[in-house]
Amino acid sequence: MQLPRLGKLRLKEVPVTTGRILSATASKEAGTWFVSLAVETEIPVPIQGEIVVIDLGLTAFATLSNGEKLTAPKPLAKHLRRLRRRSKEHSRKQKGSNNRKKSAVQLARLHRKIRNVRQDFLHKLTTTLAKTKQELVLESLNVSGMVQNGKLSRAIADVGWSEFRRQLGYKTRWYGSTLTFAGRFLATSKLCSGCGYQLEELPLAVRTWLCPECGASHDRDINAAMNLRKMAVTAA
Ligand SMILES: [Zn+2]
């Protein structure tokens, strides 16, 4: 695209319907320039297909109510381990030293790499979901609230839930899918999706459990997703 004063620019994210550009806004963030465009487009044809509830988790990035588990790419975990090690090494280097300056540059590069791998993963995932499902139901978690809450914070910030939601938000509009939110329901993992029996407690470490009432065997995440799906259908 061509912008006044800036000249020709190559776009990284191109919506499916290319329409008339109404306005462009440039902003700078951490030394990188971003351009947001307001584009006039036609409303896409609504997708007919599956309604899927997405349960965001820490072991699997997301579990779908159809039983599918989506995991983050392996290189990401490898880079994150390297980042933790390098950060520690960096903090031990003498302030103001050349070594510290050098390691700061390396750290920034690693951060960028992680961001790119994660963005790539999230973009592929959200594009596939928004292009193939009629409706996507997300649990309305208070992500920013949870990020402030100590121990969970690093893991959650790392897996990029907020970015996932942001991308699903605009991509469902681009491709004719719908994004809805199911109210937060704390007991989803403790409730048997078969008979409705409610467990007293279910420690985070327990990944599978057997319902004492009906004998059904549950994968923690899939069971939670099934419960959310039921609620979403009831709400509709
Ligand atoms: Zn049961």
Structure commentary:
- The chain is built from six helices and eleven strands.
- The protein has 236 residues and is of the alpha+beta class.
- The protein is flat and about 65 Å long.
- It starts with a strand and ends with a helix.
Quick summary of this structure?
With 236 residues, the chain is of the alpha+beta class.
Mean pLDDT: 81
Measure the end-to-end span: 42 Å
- Biggest sheet layout: 5 strands, mixed
User: Which ligands appear in the coordinates?
Assistant: zinc ion
Strand order of the largest sheet: 7-6-5-8-9
Structure classification: alpha+beta
Element order, helices and strands? EEEEEEEHHEHHHEEEH
Query: So what's the overall shape?
Result: flat
What is the total tally of β strands?
11
- Report low-confidence residues grouped into runs of 5 or more: none
Summary tags:
single chain; 236 residues; alpha+beta; five-stranded mixed beta sheet; two-stranded antiparallel sheet; binds zinc ion
